[in-house]
């Protein structure tokens, strides 16, 4: 078995969060936030369960991290998320000033760090994170693929 | 005195929310959400007070509206906000599928419906709201101008 590097190790923990989402029939996306190398927040998608449009994995993790650090500035933090952030979550990353973001699968239907648009190329924002995509990409994408496949099966499509 | 039209009337209510923010020393931005013509949610910026990076006026109003309607889909809703939405809030508008957005002042430092970027021109998103900016623009902008002026004065600049 291939030995995991540091980023893959943390992405595995984000995947663990994503699995919690699929267990409750939510689109499997998971996230964790580290502060100075320690995990301080976790989150998984709960949009349907909570009927809250903002309840995406990384959004939940960002709010938890703010609470934990008692600060809206998440400096010295790193975010790992299994899917490329949507405009809302990429925006929350900018607002919370997270300096480092690592994501798994690319998202052609909304991804804002390269797929639909790259927020780092838009002038005028007050923060630009360093972003690395494609960490355990296949595993992260497979989670989503399997989820939607099983949904279609249940619908008899 | 000039008679206010429908949009200006609602923007006045968003301004009332913005004033609540400046009263607690927060950047004065306010928002309201209507559902089928009735106000169902209000919000004002509380970022510093709450130390939560996501506590912007329209973001708070969106979460309240989801709670009220018990739905993450804010169809048949209209959002009025005194400042052009930032990437996070413009993203939350997309995620909650709000069809109509009206804002007051344009924001060259983050506005995502025309100033820094226009989300309606980015391909691949799953929703595109109708947006009208510049409603009571001067009044909305003046609120912010006065706020930052008094902050500088307090600092002795």
From TrEMBL, chains A, B:
Instruction: Name what cofactor the protein needs.
Output: Zn(2+)
Which SUPFAM superfamilies does the annotation name? Cytidine deaminase-like
What does the entry comment about cofactor binding?
Binds 1 zinc ion per subunit.
Q: Which residues form the active site?
A: 58 (proton donor)
Question: Which parts of the sequence bind Zn(2+)?
Answer: 56, 86, 89
Q: What's any GO biological process attached to this entry?
A: tRNA wobble adenosine to inosine editing
What Gene Ontology terms describe what this protein does at the molecular function level?
A: tRNA-specific adenosine-34 deaminase activity; zinc ion binding
Per the UniProt record, one Pfam family is: dCMP_cyt_deam_1
Cited Gene3D superfamilies? Cytidine Deaminase, domain 2 (3.40.140.10)
Q: Where is the CMP/dCMP-type deaminase domain?
A: 5-138
Q: Which reaction does it catalyse?
A: adenosine(34) in tRNA + H2O + H(+) = inosine(34) in tRNA + NH4(+)
Catalytic activity, EC:
3.5.4.33
Q: Which UniProt keywords apply?
A: Hydrolase, Metal-binding, tRNA processing, Zinc
Tell me, in a sentence or two, what this protein's role is: Catalyzes the deamination of adenosine to inosine at the wobble position 34 of tRNA(Arg2).
Q: How does it assemble?
A: Homodimer.
What PANTHER family has UniProt attached to this entry? CYTOSINE DEAMINASE FAMILY MEMBER, TRNA-SPECIFIC ADENOSINE DEAMINASE
What protein family is recorded? Belongs to the cytidine and deoxycytidylate deaminase family. ADAT2 subfamily.
What's this protein's name? tRNA-specific adenosine deaminase
Instruction: State the organism of origin.
Output: Anaerorhabdus furcosa
